[in-house]
Amino acid sequence: MSIIKVFSVFAVLAISFFSHSVIAMEFHFTKVADKTYAYIGPLTNRTPENLGLNNNIGLVITDKGAVLIDSGAGIPSATVLEDAVSKVTDKKIIAVINTGSQDHRWLGNGYFAEKGATIYALAKTVKTQESMGAGLVDKMTKVSDIFALTKPVTAKTPFKKDDVKLTIGNTMFHVKHFGDAHFPGDAVVWLPEQKVLFSGDLIYVDRMLGVHPFSKVASWQKAFHLAEKLPAKLIVPGHGQVCDWNKARQDTGNYLDKLVKVMSVASEDMLGVDQAVADNKDWPEFKHLEHYDSWHKTILSRTYLQFEEGI
Ligand SMILES: [Zn+2]
């Protein structure tokens, strides 16, 4: 089915969906630096109203066209992002760079590719996207069935290297993998001229980071500290408000440091997961983070199990 047909089916679904639903959310990009914008998603979970866009997305305007950093959680998210881009520039979206493999990082790729955009990603990112794509579409379809028509589409020619310098129009983009983190193959996009870092899910602020069974906590901690060497004036984190390194350290780096320190000792001492979680359930310095109550103990437990297995 062509994307046009897919889109018209989506439009019908969306109209019926919105007419039975609460007021639609507003999606817009905010300027963060010269020709550089960010959509800052809410700190909530995925909902039919936010269309899975509870994350941040980048937009850079080059002289050749607009470049998106990440493409949203599927066709419905891609259409609202496209609309938000059109409020900033009348240039076409000519490229999408993926920073990761979680649904809201890349499931909009197919929509933009069909309209002529080139999709860029590192081979390590694409490997995870390929293995998880179908499952992620299913997950988004549970959020709302308007995602059912989304097809996982990856970059045609992924970059084999972990550190790539890409020039699009007159703008330089560096795509870098510092280590597996929230998802295996996570990457960041560094704009050396603007000194802006789009960190993807390497950095979360204002909310708890997410550790899944396949997230690699020790590697994430190392990756964070390697990324810290970038002289970023501004960081657009994967989730939360635009920040600097101090804030990123406070909400992500320090949490990872403590997690690794505490759980490596606990697993070496063979404390057992229940005891390790009980001993660490109160970390007041991170209580301000949204979702602390629902995530912190799960993260402790998953991290202990990883260290016990020696991951
Ligand atoms: Zn995310």
From TrEMBL:
InterPro entries: Metallo-B-lactamas (IPR001279), NDM-1-like (IPR050855), RibonucZ/Hydroxyglut_hydro (IPR036866)
Keywords, sorted A to Z: Signal
Boundaries of every Metallo-beta-lactamase domain copy: 54-239
Signal peptide: 1-24
Highest taxon, organism lineage: Bacteria
Similarity remark: Belongs to the metallo-beta-lactamase superfamily. Class-B beta-lactamase family.
Annotated protein name in UniProt: MBL fold metallo-hydrolase
